[in-house]
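Researcher: We plan to redesign the surface later, but first we want a full-length starting point. Tokens attached.
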């Protein structure tokens, strides 16, 4: 018997000049980058929240507050690893995650294999258990005006009963 839990995560960051664009643990060459206290990797943050949500373990803001200097410019791969420790301590392992990025530019799919590799490695799953999808916002709203980038993620956790 296996206990299964599903979790959902959402995140958004502003896009500004003079910042690096980290998405899914990969540095993406682009004219703007995401603004945030950490490296502002919106995709990894959404995955963190999906995992924490599935485990009923709060959210990323509770565990890594943006008022804490420890997380200033933090590598979000380290945050995701810390989340894996939190849920692992409760006996959970990851079944799969599925993510959608929403941004106008640049094209994401050329970078998706690298993102899957990074995320699969941290989550201790096969790359086939990491879905990366991307869409534009059809030039509508703040994403359409390239003022920001959004990410959505779902995660399945399992634990022996
Ligand atoms: Mg964030």
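Model: Full-length starting sequence:
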């Amino acid at each position: 018997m296996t206990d299964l839990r599903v979790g959902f995560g959402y995140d958004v960051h502003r896009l500004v000049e003079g910042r690096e664009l980290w998405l899914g643990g990969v540095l993406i060459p682009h004219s703007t980058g995401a603004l945030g206290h950490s490296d502002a990797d919106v995709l990894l943050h959404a995955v963190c929240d999906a995992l924490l949500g599935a485990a009923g373990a709060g959210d990323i803001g509770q565990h890594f507050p943006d008022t804490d200097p420890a997380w200033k410019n933090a590598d979000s791969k380290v945050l995701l690893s810390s989340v894996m420790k939190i849920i692992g301590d409760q006996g959970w392992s990851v079944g799969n995650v599925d993510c959608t990025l929403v941004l106008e530019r640049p094209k994401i799919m050329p970078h998706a294999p690298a993102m899957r590799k990074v995320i699969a490695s941290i989550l201790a799953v096969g790359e086939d258990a990491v879905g990366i999808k991307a869409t534009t916002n059809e030039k509508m709203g703040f994403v359409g005006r390239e003022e920001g980038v959004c990410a959505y993620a779902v995660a399945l956790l399992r634990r022996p009963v």
